[in-house]
Design a protein that fits this description.
The complex is a heterodimer of chains A (600) and B (254).
Chain A lengths: L4 H13 L7 H11 L6 H11 L3 H10 L11 E6 L2 H5 L2 H12 L12 E6 L11 E3 L2 E3 L4 H12 L18 E3 L12 H8 L3 H11 L11 H10 L6 E6 L8 H8 L1 H15 L3 E6 L7 H13 L16 E6 L9 H8 L23 E5 H13 L1 H5 L9 E8 L5 E6 L4 H8 L4 E6 L5 E4 L17 E6 L4 H15 L5 H18 L3 E2 H17 L3 H5 L2 H9 L1 H5 L2 E3 L8 H4 L1 H7 L13
Parallel strand pairs in A: 1-2, 5-11, 6-7, 6-9, 7-8, 10-14, 15-16
Antiparallel strand pairs in A: 1-3, 3-4, 10-11, 12-13, 12-14
Chain B lengths: L11 E5 L2 E5 L5 H7 L23 E4 L2 E4 L10 E3 L3 H17 L14 H8 L23 E3 L9 H9 L5 E4 L6 E4 L26 E3 L12 H4 L2 H8 L13
Parallel strand pairs in B: 1-5
Antiparallel strand pairs in B: 1-2, 3-4, 3-5, 6-9, 7-8
């Protein structure tokens, strides 16, 4: 297929707008796909590669990595149903089936006329207002049968998404409990003025160290040590990166911080820039939060006008720093900081070998500080109020507060900010969870606890968390919860290393085999074997934790597995009669002779 | 990045399975081990290329923590465990995973006997695939007059990608897709090898450890039974190639 001259002009203009910078390849592809009606044709890939001066296969490889980029024709309207377990519990499957029927399209396929495609996607971060969908990347929460009909009608009549009723796209913040961060009334620039007033930037670094602030992405590395290491690393062109690729299923606190406290986020990044000596900043926003892009860019523009970004910040000569927002495109693994940096460089989001770490060799090999959205917010408050005040809140090893994204079986899902050390029981009482059977803390890669463990504390010394807090009541089948998570990891494995690439898919197949009633003790043993291997040999945290939800639920809810076992001996997953189903479909045969097992 | 020169005297040692292994700063565990005559099973590591650590077959235990020996920098005084039943068991499982992920039919494969995957599997005592096969649909590319690509056997070691990019300067190969759908692609809008600038003299033609990149017309020039791994196991041969330096990048493979 040849490109028309108009197409070439449009593509070249997009590439030019990005300065023909190969590091912006992903951003270019996102914009090009929008301009090209939802997919990237072979000739389009060729043209983009030429314009960026990169090998064609490299650009195809990038496009092939991200879920939201399409190398095959996708619908002009691309509908994705969020498939987190919380969406599932709210009936997303029935709603998707209904929409497929209304629009005459099969799941995962594009309609014959190229109008629409409908599929599932990983958690879109709307668990407090699910089931949620994305239409051409724009979030629509609170899906109901009525909304399915409304959306289907808008698609059938081919109304541009920009003209759809704004009410559809209204996202609530659902803040249920505020503390330091959500209650902050910091005026833009306050924390920067306090930082400058301390004189030498090492004074503020000392305050960060004294605050005992630890990274809020889950791993809990000391923020002070990270900033100090970056400040001390040899090399020029330091970079500050805010990780807003909040992809852990069940987590949506960064969505709310970015919507409500954008200034606090940017202020924290700018304080960090002052401390480590960076001039360039990035905020990597997950593609699912595209609706936040315009307001965030507006906040950045305002801060530039107010001399809180740009050259000579607050009139201080030599204090130059600016922030640019990059969009993700549907890849959970990019939440891992070195994969995120690869993605910022316009590449496939593959975690790097470490050492070296980003603090010395990050973006384009330069010293780079990567922190979570919530960490930067907390750092801004520490810069304003000092480290001791912050360290006094929480527990000895977990200073400050933590935002929890509460969803699932409770009366009041939403965002709850607590000082560290709060018990699971207290959170459950506050959110109105009657009859809790289990809580998945920190998402699939975190831990699953049962009703006997409700006095455990949210803190690095007990239950560390990136924020997810999914509640399951007595009506839920924890096997299905774990199976949903197994599908998630298989879908999101980057595929770099053998154990995770093959292991997560084997694990998914094992769970589907158990689900299909063909399991045996042999399959449970295989799950344990995969767990040991993935923990020992995987390249990054995704593989290390991929078996957690299954091992946790096997430990606490073993009967839901055992009742699915057909025998204690081996049973094959292969179903001979099932394999004939396709032949029956093709020949239209339904007579008894077309079945092997005549009893069923 | 440069690999350490072989002429510098070793300045430090680590312990590998209880034996002293000298290394020069900058060497990884596998580089030092192979140079000192200790075989660590591996697939994606190749002495002439920058290691990237994807196959994980070389996983060892360093001071109690598992790590890929090909990317792990050697550390003085480290205690490293490699040739243990537990680690070889894990390696066997990884190789089984690679077998079920692709379509590997050794008896009908022209690379049989010269195939590193097959040789490592024999060496590790792999007796069955253990897992259900994925049986992926991977069409072959016979478009090029002199070269056949049989993607069914690809283990995604990226050696051809590294060779084509680093040595040939052509970028004929790349990866696309993600997770279990990750796959090798070629640098052409048609997706066909014939439309790339690959040449039979390219380094990328020599490095495939399995039977993906094949020269047409020479498949059985060496009969089965007289091939590289027919006579001696890979563990006995790998050491002979180990000390090669990047300066030997052209023509040093066999």
């Amino acid at each position: 297929m040849e490109l028309s001259n108009a197409q070439k002009t449009s593509l070249d203009a997009i590439v030019a707008r990005h300065g023909a910078d190969p590091n912006r390849a992903l951003q270019v592809l996102i914009d090009v796909q929008d301009a090209e009606g939802g997919w990237l044709a072979p000739a389009v890939i060729t043209r983009v590669a030429q314009q960026l001066g990169l090998p064609r296969a490299r650009i195809e490889g990038v496009a092939g990595f991200y879920s939201f980029l399409h190398l095959e024709p996708a619908g002009r309207y691309r509908v994705l149903f969020s498939n987190n377990i919380t969406d599932r519990m709210l009936g997303n499957e029935a709603l998707m089936t209904a929409m497929c029927e209304q629009l005459w399209v099969e799941r995962g396929r594009t309609s014959e006329d190229g109008l629409v495609s409908i599929d599932m996607t990983s958690c879109t971060g709307m668990c407090d207002q699910g089931p949620a969908i994305l239409v051409n990347g724009w979030a629509i929460p609170n899906m109901t049968q009525a909304r399915v009909e409304e959306v289907a009608e808008l698609i059938r009549t081919q109304r541009p998404v920009a003209e759809w009723p704004p009410a559809l796209f209204a996202v609530a913040d659902n803040i249920r409990r505020s503390d330091l961060l959500l209650g902050s009334t910091l005026a833009p620039g306050d924390a920067l003025r306090a930082t400058l007033a301390r004189g030498d930037s090492t004074a503020t670094l000392e305050e960060i160290k004294r605050s005992k602030l630890r990274g809020r992405g889950g791993a809990g590395f000391s923020t002070g040590l990270k900033w100090a290491a970056c400040a001390a690393a040899p090399g020029d062109g330091r970079v500050v990166v805010c990780n807003a690729d909040e992809g852990e299923p069940g987590t949506f606190k960064d969505r709310v911080l970015l919507a409500r406290q954008a200034d606090l986020v940017f202020e924290g990044m700018t304080v960090c820039a002052r401390v480590v000596g960076a001039q360039q900043g990035f905020l990597y926003l997950r593609g699912e939060y595209r609706h936040l892009l315009t307001p965030l860019n507006e906040a950045l523009a305002r801060r530039r006008r107010d001399t809180l970004l740009g050259r000579s910040i607050l009139g201080r000569a030599g204090f130059d720093f600016d922030i640019e927002i990059h969009l993700g495109a549907g890849a959970y693994v990019c939440g891992e900081e070195s994969a995120l940096i690869e993605s910022l460089e316009g590449k496939r989001g593959i975690p790097r070998n470490r050492p070296p770490y980003p603090v010395t060799h990050g973006y384009l090999g330069r010293p780079t500080t990567v922190n979570n959205v919530e960490t930067f917010c907390a750092a801004a408050l520490v810069a304003l109020k000092g480290g001791d005040a912050y360290a006094a809140i929480g527990t000895p090893k977990s200073a400050g507060t933590k935002l929890l994204s509460v969803a699932g079986d409770c009366a009041r899902p939403g965002i709850y900010e607590y000082p560290f050390g709060v018990s699971v029981r207290e959170v459950l009482a506050d959110c109105g969870a009657a009859d809790p059977l289990a809580v998945q803390v920190s998402g699939p890669s975190g831990s699953c606890i049962d009703a006997s463990e409700l006095d455990r504390k949210i803190a690095f010394e007990d239950l560390p968390t990136a924020g997810a807090f999914m509640v399951f009541d007595g009506s839920r089948d924890m096997f299905e919860v774990a199976r949903n998570f197994a599908h998630f990891f298989a879908h999101e494995s980057c595929g770099f290393c053998t154990p995770c690439r093959v292991g997560t898919s084997l694990l998914r197949n094992q769970m589907d085999k158990l689900h299909g009633g063909k399991g045996s003790q042999y399959d449970l043993n295989t799950i344990y074997l995969l767990n040991r291997l993935l923990q020992a040999a995987s390249h990054c945290g995704l593989g290390h934790t991929a078996c957690n939800p299954i091992v946790d639920t096997l430990k606490r809810f073993k009967p839901v597995y055992e009742r699915r076992l057909q025998s204690l001996e081996f049973e094959p997953a292969f179903d001979l009669d099932g394999a004939l189903a396709r032949a029956r479909e093709m020949t239209g045969r339904t007579d008894p002779g077309a079945y092997l097992d005549r009893s069923s | 990045m440069t690999q350490p020169s072989d002429t510098r005297p070793p300045t430090a040692h680590f312990l590998l399975d209880g034996e002293d292994v000298p290394f020069t700063p900058g060497q990884t565990v596998i580089q030092a081990a192979l140079a000192a005559g200790h075989y660590i099973p591996h697939l994606c590591y190749h002495p002439e290329f920058q290691p990237h650590g994807s196959c994980k077959v070389c996983t060892v235990r360093v001071n109690g923590h598992t790590a890929a020996a090909c990317t792990m920098p050697a550390q003085a005084g480290a205690e490293i465990e490699s040739n243990s039943e537990e680690l070889n068991d894990k390696r066997r499982t990884l190789v089984q995973m690679l077998f079920v992920e692709g379509n590997h039919f050794c008896p009908s494969c022209e690379k049989s006997g010269n195939c590193l995957l097959q040789a490592v599997a024999y060496d590790l005592g792999m007796l069955s695939p253990r897992f259900d096969h994925f049986f992926p649909d991977r069409p072959v590319d016979a478009s090029h007059p002199d070269i056949l690509l049989d993607f069914n056997r690809c283990i995604l070691c990226e050696l051809c990608i590294r060779a084509s990019g680093e040595v040939d300067g052509k970028h004929v190969f790349a990866l696309s897709g993600r997770g279990i759908r990750k796959h090798l692609i070629v640098n052409a809008e048609s997706g066909q090898l014939a439309d790339t600038d690959i040449a039979v003299t390219d380094k990328a033609m020599e490095v495939c450890p399995v039977g993906v990149i094949l020269r047409k017309g020479v498949g059985f020039a060496v009969p089965i039974g007289k091939r590289q791994y027919d006579a001696r196991p890979v563990s006995a041969q790998a050491l002979e190639y180990a000390p090669r330096s990047p300066s030997a990048k052209r023509g040093g493979a066999e």
